[in-house]
């Protein structure tokens, strides 16, 4: 283990709530593993982010990595994601887009009339407009309430209407 100022690390972690293990590792130019090891060896209570039910449901709606790749392939021309570097770049752009539109079922159902060169198109004025329109349509609830159940009565209402049969051919027309 590298020579690190343990007391200083512990004090920083306890005093500043925004100091995460990762931030401390960057500050002291080491890995998160060593910071965690120091904190645990000194019985420092680790902070764990707690989520409420609404936040957990929102997290569950977000697409996983394989679904993100599927989303990229839906929108991007095939020659634009051949290399792993290109795919990685598109995934990073998609992560930025997912901040505003996180619902994976939206991304797996929305369609464009054309394939894109890059997902960065969604950051243009036209792209933002198209995306917001499609998201509004997706989020709109088209159910018109409960269907009314009509019960038919056994008794007649009103009088029967007697109609004259129309003649279908010449013979019926002549006979009247």
Descriptive overview:
There is one protein chain. With 176 residues, the chain is mostly helical. Among the domains are: 6-41; 62-139, no CATH class. Helices cover 51% and strands 0% of the residues. The longest helix is centred in the middle third of the chain and has 15 residues, at 84-98.
Compact summary:
This protein is an all-alpha fold. The protein contains nine helices and no strands.
Q: What's the helix and strand layout?
A:
Elements: H1 6-15, H2 21-27, H3 32-41, H4 53-61, H5 65-75, H6 84-98, H7 104-109, H8 125-139, H9 170-175
Helix pairs in contact: 2-3
Number of strands: 0
Q: Structural class of the helix and strand makeup?
A: mainly alpha
Compute the average pLDDT: 82
* Count, helices: 9
Keywords:
single chain; 176 residues; mainly alpha; 51% helix; elongated
């Amino acid at each position: 283990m590298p020579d690190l100022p343990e007391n200083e690390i512990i004090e920083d972690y306890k005093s500043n709530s925004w100091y995460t293990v990762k931030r401390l590792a960057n500050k002291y130019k080491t890995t998160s593993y060593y910071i965690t090891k120091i904190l645990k060896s000194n019985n420092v209570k680790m902070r764990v982010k707690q989520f409420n039910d609404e936040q957990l449901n929102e997290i569950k709606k977000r697409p996983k990595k394989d679904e993100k790749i599927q989303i990229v392939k839906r929108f991007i021309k095939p020659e634009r994601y051949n290399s792993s570097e290109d795919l990685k770049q598109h995934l990073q752009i998609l992560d930025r887009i997912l901040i505003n539109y996180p619902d994976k079922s939206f991304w797996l159902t929305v369609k464009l009339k054309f394939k894109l060169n890059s997902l960065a198109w969604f950051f243009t004025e036209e792209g933002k407009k198209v995306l917001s329109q499609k998201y509004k349509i997706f989020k709109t609830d088209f159910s018109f309430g409960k269907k009314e159940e009509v019960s038919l009565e056994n008794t007649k209402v009103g009088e029967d209407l007697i109609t004259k049969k129309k003649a279908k051919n010449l013979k019926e027309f002549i006979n009247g």
